[in-house]
Amino acid sequence: MVDPLLALRDASGVTLPFERYEGAGRCLLGRPAWGNGSSRRGYGLPIFEQCGAACAYCGYDMSATYEAWLNLSVDHVIPAGDARRLGYPVEWFEDVANLVTSCRACNEFLNGYRVTDVPPATVEEFFDLRDIHFARKRAWVLARHREERGWYDARPRK
Taking the model in full, what pTM does it have? Predict the structure, then answer.
């Protein structure tokens, strides 16, 4: 059964970032090397190569300036903590195919997002679930951006 959020995604023209990944995001690409331990110069590099330097959720381009580059972050679409707690295979949720470029604001907004789905039986089912959660997370983030923008615009100014 097709998730209604994915159908809305197709109708709105929003595409999944995984479509540009090697294998169209439907194969495991390996766990990124830790590198220096930072998302910008370490483990994030293979994700940025696949996903680009724009936030997969809000579209913020973090390649234009040094200050923008400092906002580069990586998000696990299926959150690692939830996946570990629920018994998902580590090689699935730590794989580059489950990771997207995220700005720090969107990554922070997603701290409260939880996955409760039972572990899928196959990696194909995992990718289907990842796609569903990406669409849900994107909607979550855009709603949070609207909320934050409303607060920011309404705040008293000196």
Answer: 0.88
**What pLDDT is stored for residue 15 in this prediction?**
83
- Per the model's pLDDT, the better-predicted residue between 79 and 10 turns out to be 79
Two tokens at 143?
Answer: 């709603």
| CB contact set of 152 (below 8 Å; sequence gap of 6+) | none
The domain segmentation of the chain, as residue ranges, is 4-153
- Amino acid identity of residue 128, one-letter, is D
Cβ atoms of 48 and 75 closer than 8 Å? no
The rounded distance, in Å, linking the Cα atoms of 147 and 80 is 26
Minimal CA–CA distance to 53: which of 36, 37, 70? 70
Q: Residue 6, Cβ neighbours under 10 Å: how many?
A: 17
DSSP letters for 95-115? SGGGEEEEEHHHHHHGGG---
Instruction: pLDDT band for 6, please (50, 70, 90 cuts).
Output: very low
Whether 88 contacts 143, CB under 8 Å = no
Amino acid found at 122: T
Q: Could you give the CA distance from residue 125 to residue 7 in angstroms, rounded to a whole number? A: 17
